[in-house]
Amino acid sequence: MKNTQTYIQEHHDDFLEDMKMLLRIPSVSADPHFKKDVVDAAKATAQLLKGAGLRKVKIHKTKGHPIVYGERIIDKKQPTVLIYGHYDVQPADPVELWDTPPFEPVVKTTKKHPMGAVYARGAADDKGQFLMHVEAVKAMIATNELPCNVKFMIEGEEEVGSIHLGDFCKANKKMLACDVILISDTSIISNKTPSITVGLRGLSYVEVEVTGPNRDLHSGVYGGAVANPINILAKMIAQLHDEDNHITIPGFYDDVKVFSQKERDELNKAPFSEAKYKRDLGIREVYGEKGYTTIERTGIRPTLDVNGIWGGYIGEGAKTVLPSKAYAKISMRLIPNQDPKKITRLFAKYFKSLAPKAVKVKVTPHHGGSASVTPIDSIEYLAAAKALQTTFKKDVIPQMSGGSIPIVALFSKVLKVNTVLMGFGLDSDAIHSPNEHYGLFNFYKGIETIPYFFANYVEMKN
Ligand code: BES
Ligand code: MN
Ligand code: MN
Asked: What is the CATH number of the domain that holds 237?
């Protein structure tokens, strides 16, 4: 361990160069235009795995973007840690809101990041984060201090719903057999307050289309006599929440896990300043479901949000038009025991029931996934908590996150193992937004912490 830590301190610059190299590849999985770049990122990831000393490194083709695999088996009697991450990134748009180009990584020093932060799309989500594991394993192998077996599975479709990963896992159960899955794709509370994400929300994502007349019409000649699908859509959306911001879909809350007051009190102990939260976001008031705190609203309650809405004329100036169609993309974040398929069904039924006869409604489901939780009395949680405690010299707080990594629920179902979400990002990293960045403090701290997880896990397991 001592040698591993020395190796890490001596290779900071190399690690940073690896991160910049990855970040220069625009591996946007959602946009077919970047298909070749996604493949290039898979190749670069495979190269990094080889360079770290992993064996059987292979780029596995899927019907979509490839999955990169590598392993180092030192002793079949020792436990196996499977590292999961994703080399694909969100689209960079709106590009004009970036201060520096999204795929030209630069280190900038800010008040929040006195050690500097790397600015680029994918810096925190998830290239900078999965790379920490590659570098940590590289250090352990180079110093002969890797205490157990390790496998890597880095995919290229996380940001589009991990479409082919489920089948890949089912088809390769033996290759992926492991004792624990370790993921860094989440955040800590702050650089002074280390935390482990013990809950992720699930997701149901749908697109709706409302059709009125069979063509766009003159809004004067026809306006007032024909249903305007945008007006109707807005009205329908407005009915999805009541006065108290509860979701109105019948049956939506039926399976929702109810947290006891004791559990809620525990959650609310996490350091959180509402004033700072509001200041940071430029809002005068928080807003959400009545009866719950901000921590609870994102951690243990389901939501429904419109992610995009369009239709009619949105070009320059004014065009008088009564549009034929209106559209919206709607996400529902789910919490334990809600079944995404059932929620999608309930949504579709209710949404259609809200429409007047004057329009037609189509609901198209996109990807989804179930919520997941890690028990805090499990060996894997304890090994991670102890590792963070060692490197941050602070007690660790379990945290429920509002985001989703749908494949985590599938891992527990298919591979039958627990997942530890030991992410090192900050909520302020602007993931999915312009000017995404990842703190160098976080990057190096992560690389330092990972070998302690390995050591603790092997010790607790044996
Ligand atoms: N890494 C994020 C999820 C995340 C971020 C969890 C921060 C906790 C804290 C992941 O890449 C992501 O963006 N997931 C998507 C879902 C996916 C199906 C597109 C999400 O949460 O919107
Ligand atoms: Mn991610
Ligand atoms: Mn993401």
From this structure: 3.30.70.360
